[in-house]
């Protein structure tokens, strides 16, 4: 229980916030933090636990977003159905990418995932007949749970449910046999194979699982925001963002992505609010800041915030002993 | 049907035009890719911020042209030392500390650098599309039935001269030999008394100078905006992986291949879909020959 104290506090605060604060702005930030946290947790499954550092997760996010948007806007069906379709397509895509990129490591793997997401970006932005091309798709707002037309408070709980489930998936990956096997493959693939672990199959599994989770997040995001723009949902920037949250929070740590998402989103919102009045170009300033933060974090705290907390704790315990 | 696509003497002209366009484009891609592959080959770091230095080169050309009316090809003279210096500073501030770190640390350091530079450009110069249009950008040269633009020809010539210069430097100078030795075996080079830190610094500065020069060269041909580097650098990755990461001759061949896919692709399937072609080619190479078409097998599994 003690190990999960941070997560329990974080999720409890999120659950109680709508009871106290009714302001749309805060609730909106909260939904975004929970969604980004959950999707980054999905990235963590591949990047953190399996060591398959992807810079193309926007591919799965975009598939989920498009599936939900197309199903609800074009075919007037429930976006939940779209979510399911998107998930299946993403699993298929994850299996293909995972299988094809199986032998690749480090920068090669990252480059191949970028290439896959770029192919999807081009298809989504050019295939006008199916995806409406670069115009993007506005998602109709139809009130109700089945149509995902919800108010801010309800969205907080949907996003929170997603975040909690993803957190539990991560915890399962830390504890289970398969999680230990993944850690083995991540740390030393040859040694893991020598011990009889089917490393290739495991890596493909991790990517497919990560793809499914990312896609669900993308579907919910599309319904929440109400608009799908191919140049955003399939962008390299977005892929980097998922990785960034996780690295800043702590890779391969269940709470890491949520910490990272909370920190970065809060930073983004406050810097945006602070600089928006001055001049249009200054919106970029928060991104400069986060580029610099990323450089500093990987250099000085490569284990992320969660790791830093652990390090401080050990040091205090030692000091007291 | 498009008359150019029917059989006949016109088709010969089309082929000539496609050929010339491929070569011109390939020369420019080569200069971008050569810097990237040099940095990878010697430092074992994929520079995800490579495109941002290209973008900075384009802005240098833009501002010199807009403020002082300087021709991009004059700016080139200043761009070489300027970007060399930028490379040295970036190495000292950012790269030096992560040169022996894990892949993940290196990947995200350069990704962070890319985000910071891109948005610094956005803050300083806004997201507007800018254009550099010196007199030579509108001069059309005709040889036989194929036509091309004077800026393109000059960009190609300079890029090729630069690339050849770099090859000569690597092959015949002491510094070049030292750099190649470091690329082959970092530890052995250190044991032979080579100061590898200096080699990395020099390598990074040369790589950045190449791409900065490329940015100045392409400025009259493309529009200038903060994320202008992305498309080029994605291409450069394709080129460099095709040729084998770290292989400079491979990068030249890769450039020509990618340029031909782009040129022939836009002719056959239209410019909207040509990018799909080279990404598919990229994925195919990564899957079937990750060491590149001409590289040694298994390179992707070694310490890279």
Structure description:
The complex is a heterodimer of chains A (321) and B (304). Chain A has helices at 5-20, 24-49, 58-74, 79-100, 106-126, 128-131, 152-175, 177-187, 189-194, 199-225, 230-233, 236-249, 256-275, 285-300, 304-320; strands at 137-138, 227-228. The two termini of chain A are 23 Å apart. The longest helix of chain A is centred in the middle third of the chain and has 27 residues, at 199-225. Chain A is 76% helix and 1% strand. Chain A has a two-stranded antiparallel sheet with strand order 1-2. Chain A is mostly helical and 321 residues long. Chain A has 15 helices and two strands. Chain B is an all-alpha fold and 304 residues long. Chain B has a single domain, classed as ABC transporter involved in vitamin B12 uptake, BtuC, CATH 1.10.3470. Chain B has helices spanning 9-43, 50-68, 72-95, 103-125, 150-172, 174-184, 186-191, 196-218, 228-243, 248-268, 274-288; strands at residues 140-143, 146-149. Chain B has a two-stranded antiparallel ribbon. In chain B, a hairpin with a 2-residue loop joins β1 (140-143) and β2. The longest helix of chain B has 35 residues, at 9-43. The termini of chain B are far apart. The model of chain B is unreliable at 300-304 (pLDDT under 50). Classes of the chains: A mainly alpha (321), B mainly alpha (304). At the A-B interface, α5, α12 and α14 of A face α4, α9 and α11 of B.
């Amino acid at each position: 229980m003690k190990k999960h104290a941070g997560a329990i506090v974080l999720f409890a605060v999120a659950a109680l916030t709508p009871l106290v604060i009714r302001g749309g702005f805060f609730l909106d930030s909260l939904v975004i933090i929970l969604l980004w946290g959950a999707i980054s947790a999905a990235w963590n499954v591949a990047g953190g636990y399996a060591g398959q550092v992807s810079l193309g997760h926007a591919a799965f996010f975009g598939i989920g977003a498009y599936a939900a948007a197309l199903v609800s806007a074009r075919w007037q069906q429930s976006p939940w159905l779209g979510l399911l379709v998107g998930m299946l397509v993403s699993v298929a895509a994850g299996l293909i990418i995972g299988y094809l990129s199986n032998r690749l490591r480090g920068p090669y793997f990252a480059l191949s995932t970028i290439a896959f997401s770029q192919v999807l970006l081009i298809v989504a932005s050019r295939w006008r007949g199916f995806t409406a091309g670069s115009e993007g798709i506005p998602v109709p707002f139809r009130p109700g749970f089945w149509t995902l037309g919800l108010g801010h408070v309800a969205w907080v709980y949907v996003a929170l449910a997603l975040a909690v489930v993803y957190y539990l998936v991560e915890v399962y990956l830390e504890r289970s046999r398969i999680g230990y096997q993944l850690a083995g493959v991540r740390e030393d693939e040859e040694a893991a194979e020598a011990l009889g672990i089917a490393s290739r199959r495991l890596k493909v599994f991790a990517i497919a699982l990560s793809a499914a989770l990312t896609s669900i997040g993308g579907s919910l995001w599309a319904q929440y925001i109400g608009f799908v723009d191919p140049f955003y949902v399939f962008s390299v920037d977005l892929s980097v963002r998922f990785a960034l949250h996780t690295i800043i929070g702590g890779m391969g740590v269940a709470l890491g992505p949520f910490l990272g998402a909370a920190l970065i989103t809060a930073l983004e919102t406050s810097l945006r609010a602070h600089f928006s009045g001055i001049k249009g170009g200054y919106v970029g300033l928060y991104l400069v800041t986060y580029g610099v933060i990323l450089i500093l974090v990987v250099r000085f705290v490569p284990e992320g915030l969660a790791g830093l907390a652990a390090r401080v704790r050990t040091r205090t315990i030692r000091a007291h002993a | 049907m498009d008359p150019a696509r029917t059989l006949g003497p016109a088709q010969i002209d089309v082929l000539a035009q496609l050929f010339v366009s491929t070569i011109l484009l390939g020369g420019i891609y080569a200069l971008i890719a050569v810097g990237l592959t040099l940095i990878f080959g010697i430092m074992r770091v994929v520079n995800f911020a490579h495109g941002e230095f290209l973008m900075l080169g384009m802005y240098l050309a833009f501002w010199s042209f807009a403020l002082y009316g300087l021709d991009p090809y004059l700016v080139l003279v200043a761009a070489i030392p300027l970007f060399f210096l930028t490379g040295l500073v970036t190495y000292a501030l950012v790269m030096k500390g992560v040169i022996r770190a894990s892949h993940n640390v290196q990947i995200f350091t350069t990704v962070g650098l890319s985000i910071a530079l891109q948005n610094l450009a956005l803050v300083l110069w806004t997201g507007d599309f800018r254009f550099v249009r010196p007199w030579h950008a509108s001069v059309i040269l005709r040889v036989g039935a194929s036509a091309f633009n004077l800026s393109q020809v000059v960009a190609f010539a300079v890029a090729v001269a630069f690339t050849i210069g770099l090859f000569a430097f690597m092959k015949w100078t002491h510094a070049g030999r030292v750099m190649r030795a470091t690329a082959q075996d970092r530890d052995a080079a250190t044991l032979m008394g080579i100061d590898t830190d200096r080699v990395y610094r020099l390598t990074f500065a040369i790589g950045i100078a190449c791409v900065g020069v490329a940015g100045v060269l392409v400025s009259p041909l493309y529009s200038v905006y903060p994320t202008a580097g992305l498309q080029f650098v994605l291409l450069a990755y394709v080129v460099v992986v095709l040729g084998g990461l770290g292989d400079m001759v491979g990068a030249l061949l890769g450039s020509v291949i990618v340029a031909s896919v782009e040129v022939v692709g836009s002719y056959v399937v239209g410019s909207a879909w040509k990018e799909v072609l080279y990404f598919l080619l990229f994925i195919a190479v990564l899957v079937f020959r990750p060491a590149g078409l001409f590289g040694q097998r298994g390179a992707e599994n070694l310490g890279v």
